Amino acid sequence: MPAIVLIGAQWGDEGKGKVTDLLGEQVHYVVRYSGGNNAGHTVITPDGQKYALHLMPSGALSPNAMIVIGNGVVVDPKVLLEEIDGLAERGVDVSRLRISGDAHLIMPHHRALDRVVERYLGSARIGTTGRGIGPAYGDKVARMGIRLQDLLDPGILRKKLELALREKNQMLFKVYNRKALDVDAVTEEYLEYAKRLRPYIAETRTILWDALDRGETVLLEGAQATMLDMDHGTYPFVTSSNPTAGGACVGAGIPPTAITKVIGVTKAYTTRVGSGPFPTELHDENGMHLRKVGVEYGTTTGRERRTGWFDAVVARYATRLNGITDLVVTKLDVLTGLEKVPICVGYEIDGERFDDMPMTQTGFHHATPIYEEHDGWWEDITKARTEAELPENARRYIARIEELCGTRVSVVGVGPGREENVVRHPLL
């Protein structure tokens, strides 16, 4: 059986958690391979219960799947333990969780620096969540990070922390006029986390290799999305990892030859959180309509999401970059009641038309969308379960997205619930 990658095809918040939960009962392992608790997945179960997950893979809500946090994730142990406890209190079996010993830890100095640097940047700020993700990845690349396996060796943990704080405390105190962190207090705090996390820490690569050898299905779940990828997104307004399909191999230790399907998730319109270019962004009543009806507020931050029309240039870029074999288009129901539903099919930059992503950051910042207008629909589509039950104009809209992206639309979301989907082609 295959390894399957599930990725966001826009700027995040596309509904990946819902799709992971939808597939969870059909797969054996669900693996989170990138990001930290700067991302969130909202899942609504058939009985109406709502779960907001930040570090735990969305497959946690599927009773049979093993859940894995891979080496590519940065882990705040306090947040993870709170999430584990919250799920356990609601009857979710968390004993299935395994965390890579090579995953890096978010430390107090990472959070402190993230917040103070973002404030210091002022109007040039990136729009981070202030949870320490960027600084943790920075230390990982600088080869001075602290990993989960270090929690199992108090001597190594303290030695690495002393080395890190020798520099970080200088920055906090002398550059930003903040209080220095105490080595003893941080060491004691993290050794307490170690007592509880020890049963979950494992060599997850071997676990996943053995699962694939047995013919079991592994679903690789990315946080954030394509346009927030460190290398391929709208740099510098990006996350600090690689949530694209290629990042799944690095962040989970899965060989590329094991991946047989890439599922891309996109909204029927576009949103993004934080700063950065957004060609189809709306500042009118249509943008307010999308935000209100779509309940566009961040799962992790609660921040208002910026909203805009569907951008086929971005979606086609994501399709080609990730090798997307199947698209899931979510929140089609949010567009119900609009007289016209535009799709951005290209950009105009300095009088020149671009049908693909412009090469430069400056070009993308100055891109003016070229729209193709489609007639809207007024029928309630939340009860539709087959394509024939969708209004003709909604079917035409989806068909045009499929044509512009160059890959098939397999599932259309018509509501927030797990079962509120039109399945055009089975994902598994």
Automatic annotation (TrEMBL):
Which positions are annotated as binding GTP? 12-18, 40-42, 305, 331-333, 413-415
Gene3D superfamilies for this protein: Adenylosuccinate Synthetase, subunit A, domain 1 (3.40.440.10), Adenylosuccinate Synthetase, subunit A, domain 2 (1.10.300.10), Adenylosuccinate Synthetase, subunit A, domain 3 (3.90.170.10)
Which prosthetic group or cofactor does it need? Mg(2+)
The name this protein carries in UniProt is Adenylosuccinate synthetase
Which PANTHER family does the entry link to? ADENYLOSUCCINATE SYNTHETASE (PTHR11846)
Could you provide one GO biological process annotation from this protein's UniProt record? IMP metabolic process
Subunit annotation: Homodimer.
Q: Which domain of life is it from?
A: Bacteria
What this chain does, per the entry, is described as: Plays an important role in the de novo pathway of purine nucleotide biosynthesis. Catalyzes the first committed step in the biosynthesis of AMP from IMP.
A GO term, aspect molecular function: magnesium ion binding
- Pfam families (alphabetical): Adenylsucc_synt
Return the CDD domains for the record: AdSS (cd03108)
Q: What keywords does the record list, in alphabetical order?
A: Cytoplasm, GTP-binding, Ligase, Magnesium, Metal-binding, Nucleotide-binding, Purine biosynthesis
Q: Which GO terms describe its cellular component?
A: cytoplasm
Q: In which pathway does it act?
A: Purine metabolism; AMP biosynthesis via de novo pathway; AMP from IMP: step 1/2
The protein's matches in SMART domains, at most eight in alphabetical order, are given as: Adenylsucc_synt
The active-site annotation reads 13 (proton acceptor), 41 (proton donor), 140
| Residues where Mg(2+) binds | 13, 40
What EC identifiers does the entry list? 6.3.4.4
Gene expressing this chain: purA
Similarity-based family: Belongs to the adenylosuccinate synthetase family.
Which HAMAP family is this protein grouped with?
Adenylosucc_synth
Cofactor stoichiometry and binding? Answer: Binds 1 Mg(2+) ion per subunit.
Which residues does substrate bind? 299-305
UniProt-annotated location(s): Cytoplasm
Q: Which reaction does it catalyse?
A: IMP + L-aspartate + GTP = N(6)-(1,2-dicarboxyethyl)-AMP + GDP + phosphate + 2 H(+)
